[in-house]
Design a protein that fits this description.
Length: 306
């Protein structure tokens, strides 16, 4: 059975990085005295690091030849490895500093299809303006699939709909939108700003697939009003829904944010569902761990919440 305590005991102890740097300095500077001057330390300090490194290796790395130090065969053999180790450590520190300064980094984000397509991009553009060297990978899909990936540790945050609280995660209101009816601008309904929900039972209706958040919200409204929800076409994509409506296949129901560009262009008309109380609302939640270790992701989450 895996035992962390035993594993730690079995792992070899790494040499002191400073001792490796001192070892290379003695070689490059031609002696302990010159190495001490180069490093800005005392000669006894250099000698102490060399003794510690030799104790770690279990072999002498230098031998005296008169008043000078000469490398042993083992010391000569370890030079390339010491250089690689020091270089790797230098790269490690530089990378850590760059990450801390947000000069490089990687973020794994997730969002429901609607949020990823129509809501998140403007936030990412603003983030990239401040941190142009941070790379962001956005995974989109159903709220359920994205949430599963978040809980599996594959994503650093997610923007989803219809989720509950999860232990160890924050859930913050991110975006709220209204479900609206869309029709072509030459449709008979285009003359209205709102229509009663009963009209939706008398027309060819284009809807998201059963199980989607849009479907559940509309289905709940129909049930409360005693109406039958019976779409003629189902779609798993908002752009497909809009295209079908533009081609005259029927009347669609989508999030208001989905058709903002179409309204500006002037090829679709948005109509509200006339209800005695409230509106057809969609709520997008920002879900993220209570402990975010990636500073780049933490900065993006802070921006999304601001």
């Amino acid at each position: 059975m895996y035992n962390k305590g035993n594993l730690m005991k079995e792992m070899p102890k790494f040499p002191n990085p400073t001792a490796l740097s001192v070892f290379l300095a003695v070689i490059e500077e031609g002696g302990v005295g010159n190495a001490a001057l180069s490093l800005g330390v005392t000669q006894p300090a250099v000698s102490q690091h060399l003794r510690a490194l030799e104790a770690h290796v279990g072999q002498a790395l230098f031998e005296k030849q008169g008043r000078k130090l000469a490398l042993t065969q083992i010391g000569s053999a370890l030079i390339p490895e010491a250089r690689r180790a020091v270089q790797a450590l230098t790269r490690f520190h530089r990378t850590a500093e760059a990450l801390d300064r947000m000069e490089q980094g990687w973020i794994e984000a997730g969002a429901s299809s609607t949020a990823a397509t129509y809501v998140l991009p403007r936030f990412l553009m603003e983030y990239q303006r401040h941190y142009p060297k941070i790379k962001i990978n956005v995974t989109s899909g159903s709220s359920e699939s994205v949430t599963k990936r978040l809980l599996a540790g594959e994503l650093e945050f997610a923007i989803v709909e219809g989720v509950e609280h999860f232990e160890g995660y924050h859930r913050k209101l991110f975006y709220e939108d209204e479900l609206v009816i869309i029709v072509p601008t030459d449709h008979p309904w285009a003359a209205f700003e709102e229509v009663p929900p009963e009209w939706l039972t008398e027309c060819p209706l284009i809807m998201r697939q059963p199980g989607s958040v849009t479907w559940r919200v509309v289905e709940r409204m129909f049930e409360q009003l005693g109406l039958e929800l019976n779409p003629i076409i189902y779609s798993d994509n908002n752009e497909v829904t809009k295209r079908l409506v533009l081609e005259g296949a029927g009347v669609g129901i989508v999030s208001n944010v989905v058709v903002r560009i179409n309204v500006r262009v002037g090829n679709l008309k948005v109509i509200r569902v006339k209800l005695d109380e409230g509106e057809l609302r969609r709520i997008f939640w920002l879900i993220y761990p209570k402990q975010v270790s990636n500073p780049a992701a933490a900065a993006l989450i802070e921006q999304l919440l601001s």
